[in-house]
Design brief:
This protein is mainly α. Helix content is about 65%, strand content about 5%.
């Protein structure tokens, strides 16, 4: 059995890649929210809706990400080549696992999905509420 669903793994990989591309030492919850906005924006476009809200949020998150500390050549050797999960992100991942455990879902494709990740992120960033709402709209429209 896998812990993460394939979609959650994609978002986690995108968040990690974003942190590395921006030379951030750690992957923060902001990286995860940034990756999730890309997903909800694509979902909106797939169902023929406007992705303006997600694009605006994506831009705001990009601006916020630029404020995070950046590795320079001096400290990159000490920290290694890839970004590591920050303490805040570790807490988010543990909250997502806790939410998943309460749901008692047993699946071969993973227990912790994008929905659990976004609910866990809600405590760190209020902007996730809009993502959750957009995702729920997508799921009801596609059902």
């Amino acid at each position: 059995m896998f812990i993460w669903t394939p979609r959650a793994m994609e978002v986690l990989r995108e968040a990690s890649a974003k942190a590395e591309n921006m030379n951030h030492r750690e992957v923060h919850p902001l990286h995860l929210v940034w990756a999730a906005t890309g997903r909800t924006g694509l979902d909106a476009l797939r169902r023929g809706k406007n992705d303006h809200q997600q694009a605006k949020l994506h831009f705001q998150l990009e601006r916020d990400l630029n404020k995070l500390p950046v590795m320079d050549e001096f400290n990159s050797a000490a920290w290694g080549e890839c970004a590591t999960p920050s303490v805040k992100l570790q807490r988010v991942l543990l909250r997502a696992a806790d939410i998943s455990a309460r749901n008692s879902l047993d699946g071969e494709r993973g227990r912790i999905g994008l929905a659990e990740l976004m609910k866990a992120l809600l405590q760190d960033d209020h902007r996730v509420a809009g993502l959750i709402r957009a995702r729920e709209e997508y799921l009801t429209a596609s059902a």
